[in-house]
Amino acid sequence: MFSNLEQKNSKNYPNSKHFLTFAAVMAFELTSDYVDILRLAIEERKDQFLTEQMQEHYAVDIAEIFNQLGFDEAKYLYDLLPEEVTADVLLEVTEELREELLSSLSTKEIAEQLDNMDSDDAADVINELPEEIQDEVLSHIEDIDQAGDIADLLSYEEGTAGSLMAKELVSVYAHETVNACIEEIRRQTDTVETMYTVYVLDDKERLIGLLSLKKLIVAHPLTRIEEIYDSEIMSVKVTETTDEISDIMRKYDLVVLPVVDSLGRLVGRITIDDVVDVIREEAEKDIQRMSGISDDVDSTDKIWRLSRARIPWLLVGMCGGIIGSRIIGNYETQIKIHPEMAFFIPLIGAMGGNVGVQSSAIIVQGLANNSVSGERLAPKLLKELGVGLINGLICSSLIFGYNMLISDSFHLAAVVSIALITVIMFASFLGTFVPLTLHRFKINPALATGPFVTTLNDILGITIYFLIGRILYSAV
Amino acid sequence: MFSNLEQKNSKNYPNSKHFLTFAAVMAFELTSDYVDILRLAIEERKDQFLTEQMQEHYAVDIAEIFNQLGFDEAKYLYDLLPEEVTADVLLEVTEELREELLSSLSTKEIAEQLDNMDSDDAADVINELPEEIQDEVLSHIEDIDQAGDIADLLSYEEGTAGSLMAKELVSVYAHETVNACIEEIRRQTDTVETMYTVYVLDDKERLIGLLSLKKLIVAHPLTRIEEIYDSEIMSVKVTETTDEISDIMRKYDLVVLPVVDSLGRLVGRITIDDVVDVIREEAEKDIQRMSGISDDVDSTDKIWRLSRARIPWLLVGMCGGIIGSRIIGNYETQIKIHPEMAFFIPLIGAMGGNVGVQSSAIIVQGLANNSVSGERLAPKLLKELGVGLINGLICSSLIFGYNMLISDSFHLAAVVSIALITVIMFASFLGTFVPLTLHRFKINPALATGPFVTTLNDILGITIYFLIGRILYSAV
Predict the structure, then answer these.
(1) What is the pLDDT of residues A177-200, one digit of tens each?
(2) How many other C-beta atoms are found inside a 10 Å radius of the C-beta of residue A296?
(3) Could you tell me the pTM of the whole model?
(4) Distance from B453 to chain A by nearest Cα, in Å?
(5) Which of A310, A380, A396, A399 to mutate to test the interface with B (most CBs of B within 10 A)?
């Protein structure tokens, strides 16, 4: 969410001496020993040492250090930081710590921090503040343009292009000259830190193209923009979803994507660093969904939040288990006669679950990167059934051999093997069919690779197993 | 892997008329109806219609269409494409189709395609070619600089900065003037399509800083570079791993990252679009690992490859099932007397598995985004045990109530409930402990969130369940 895309989190320190001679700056790696050293120094109030240490790091690294400290320690370090760095550090710490740090500041101090942020970051921070102080903070922002931009951005809905974009950009009218354009860049050089492209507008403020800085540099100063600009420009509406935006930027390898309103007027731009975060968050959410965690949580959250995020799918699993118990309950007398049937309940259940998860993971991934189209079900199902048949044959042959070796019951060996291959085939089918069907009904198929498919296959597996057992044993 | 980061996959067509008036180009969405129309047109050899249609799309969209066609159809369309587009389309189709298309070309024709690619993309393609023709293709490349760059890149190991970087960049010596720098940019404007930054070198070709194009535009033409360049520049060694690089670029929000050799000399640069692909691939691999798929496969792979990637973890699951069967086997007489014990085997197994996967997913995710440090085990284990206790109490109370309602066996109800909360606590512990331990021994913890933890918890659950059953029932 930073601003200077080329070399971000600029240290802004005059005396970072280790840069003077040789520039191969390496990334910082935080160790717990280093955190302990800082802790001790904070305890002993060694301000000079701490200030020197902080000067060695980028804002994002300082934030990482803060995340390892208690609030009082972090606050002590925060107060030692020079003003140019605090806004960047605030943006990079965990939401929890940011909330604590901000609540220790007056509304005027918060406004000063927001003044040093890009408009999109500032709007995000305001959104996190308690509602009753939001307007007050906004009124304290000195730069009126910045305050107006932030207020604009606050009006867009979460999860849309409007919520992701920043207002900082450079635009020119098509009828202007290269010289005028360079003047405009010079004028804006402080507010717009990241700049790769100048956007070209018609007289009605509508986006009609772009001009790369490279082209601007090599062009004659008196050339008119309309003679050299590139009219092929991809843009998104301000209401477009962030998922769609991350797909577009990834697919077309874009670094910046302009955002237009419904009249085609340029209102902002989205940069790749924000989208990289979206891509990662999406991947994390998918992994959580697959693992049966319903809310977006991480390990630093409070215990009760972590519990609440996990209990829904546990209850689904429990319902599955109860249904399973009723199904097995129907075979009570059979179990009394053939208790060895019970031995393989876990095996049948586990294999059904594993195969189902494997099948659905492949399909969900294919849907996510568009290599599976969601149409033409039959060939995909056939392929999965083919895979299921091969793996089912391998597994059921092995378990048949094992059972013949270990016990002398041909019947048990036959029941387990036949049930196993049947369960694997069914699980392959369900693992493919369920996510494709969810996708068709516009439900996120990642939901299906998790506890849902596992629970379904558990129940199905037990049903098939005992059914086959009854048939084969009664055929004796 | 394209070259123009601002607006990529440029259509390069003179007559894409829908751009002339209004520039809000929207992303292309491929439908199966459209593919059918193209199929029919290919069958009927409607070359003019097809050429017109292809002119409407970006290279990456044409590649998406190709991926939906058979090889003969794709090849027919490929031959209709103008030369400027074919290289870009080749880069974007699936590896399988690219192999087929390339094998239909002569080594000279392949060399022509490589001449139109960025050096990093060209090196990737050469790496995919059969070894016996690689040298021949390289010798046919007309641009000697390009051929040299590709040969250089081929010498770096897979998975390192060297394998990810491109050679196209603009650099100047610190003692040169702004004017000389602009001249250099003008000279290189054809080869280096993406340019946000000019790299600054000392007399020994060592990277000492950068100059943004913005700064270059607003600077006086006779200023020396050394007076205005920015000496704060992050770089990586050519041997750095791609994982590390994606972490660095994401953390520091970089769009380009220069690569230096062991003497600090600039040898290439890595752009964010390549890293976005790395991030996505990593996330996909994690999801596959969690789902018990051992190789990197996708749904378009052949059946036997899909089978092979899945069978290892199925066999692990099967071993777990067999161990489970032996454990239950020890309680054969108990099951004969209390067959209702068997009813809840699936419930206990499923809950242990679900809880374990939930716990480990949270930890793996925390390790991946550095919010969990991998040190100080105790507080994390305590927290997870806390979550386990809350959810375990909820679940076991519910199942106790259910069992008291549905059956009249207080013993069964007690056994299931006590076993359930014990299993949930153990599963929480293992789900946290296993990935943290793997991480400590430098093994990818994502392995642990999958079938491994599930299998382990299955076995553990059954052991606990029957043990508690024996104790409680024998206490009657």
Answers:
(1) 999 998 888 887 766 666 778 999
(2) 12
(3) 0.74
(4) 12
(5) A310
